[in-house]
Amino acid sequence: xxIIGVIAGKGNLPRLIFEHCVKNNLxxxxxxxxxxxxxxxxxxxxxxxSIGKVGKILNFFKKKKVTDIxxxxxxxxxxxxxxxxxxxxxFLLSKILKNKLxxxxxxxxxxxSYIEKHNFKVIATDELLPNMHLKEGxxxxxxxxxxxxxxxxxxxxxxxxxxxxxxxxxxxxxNGRIIALEAAEGTDKMIIRSAPYIESNQxxxxxxxxxxxxNQDRRADLPTVGIETINNLSKxxxxxxxxxxxxxxxxxxxxxxxxAEKKNILxxxxxxxxx
Length: 275
Known about the structure:
5-stranded parallel β-sheet, 9 helices, alpha/beta, 13 strands
C-alpha cells in the first residue's frame, strides 16, 4: 500500500497534499521544517524538525512505514556554518558541500538521492495531485498582445543561457528591459523589491516569467504560484504572469485564475524551448 510522507515547507502546497490524501483514503505523514502546520492535522501525523536532522526525519518516516516521499513548500536555504545536524545530516552535508555550485537544484538533487538510498521513493507533487497545470495560452479572459511575445522570448532565451548556473526561476521584464532576476530571496520578495522600477505602460506592461530550469529534477522545487503571488503582482503593477505549463504548479488553479482576472492580471501558459 502507498503511504505518503511529506517534507513540508511554507505555503499551501503541504495542505493540498494532505487534503488530497484524506479525500482518497491515503495515509499521510508530514515533517514540517522549522515551522508549524497552517492547517488542521492530528498531532500523531507529523513532527517538527530542523532540516539538518536528517536521521530524525528518515526514522519518523520509517516508523510510519512510508513508501513515497514528496518535497513540498518553500524552505529557506540554511546557513551551513550554523546548521544543527545529526550523523545522517553530517554525511548529507558533506556530499552537498563537494559541489562547486550550491544552487537550489543541486542542493535538492543531493537530498533526493540521499533519501532514495534509504529505500524511499521520491515522487513529484503532480504525480499525486491532479489539475495543477495551466493550459497553453491565456488561462483567463484576458488576452496577450502579440508584440509582448518578444519579451517572453527574451526571458526564455535568458533562462536558456543561465540554467547551468542554477540561480533562479523567475524574472521581470518590461519592453525589452530586464528589471529583476530572482536570486536567493525567492519570487515574491523579488516582485516586492522591483516595484519602484516598473513603469505604468498599458502598451508594454511588466511581465513576470516563471519557468523551471533546464534539466531540473521535477520532484523538487518546481515553480509554484498561489494567491499571495497574484497579490504581490497587483501591488507592484505587473500585469502578466507567464508560466511553464508542463513544469509549474498552480495552487487552487481555478480560484487563482479568476482572482487574477479580477486584478486585471493575465495568466499565460507556455512550453519553453530550451533547445
